[in-house]
Amino acid sequence: MKGIVFTEFLELVEDKFGLEMVDYIITNSDLESNGIYTAVGIYSFSEMSQLLQHLSERTQISIDNLLLVYGEYFFRVLEKSSPELLLAYTDPIEMISAIENHIHIEVRKIYPDAELPTFKVIEKTANSLILDYKSSRAMHHFGLGLMNKTFEHFNATAVIELEKIKEDGTDVRFVIHKN
């Protein structure tokens, strides 16, 4: 997993819960990296899982809700690092439906070895989208947070339903209805 995901996560934890919480989740996790991350480094997903687990236990916020907030927070990274990507679209449905065939291609130019989930468009209209998410990591709520911010970016709203195809969250269907 790319280091920027870790560095931004720890920044979010510090912003929302304080430096003591960052210290707590790092100290209480068994991290190969010892909690020392660089934005360009590559780290095991198990480290993120441990950090999330300890944060969830300490805050009593579910991991899914933490990932949702983190996805919304991470959208600003995309705004800063790839503003041209956002300018390429005028509609959130168009942008979200282009994740696999455009956005992930651009992400791979910056992070060639990034392990990204796959998104398959099942059905698309001007105001709706059905999208299947597959990943070895159950971070679908992170994706949901990014989708929420995508709609906000375009001054639009939507109802986004999440249906787990596999109970472990590695295979999920997003059903999006733009308001």
TrEMBL record:
It holds the Pfam family HNOB. SUPFAM superfamilies: Ligand-binding domain in the NO signalling and Golgi transport (SSF111126). InterPro entries: H-NOX_domain_sf, Heme_NO-bd, NO_sig/Golgi_transp_ligand-bd. Residues 2-161 form the Heme NO-binding domain. One of its GO terms (molecular function) is heme binding. This is Heme NO-binding domain-containing protein. It comes from Psychroserpens burtonensis.
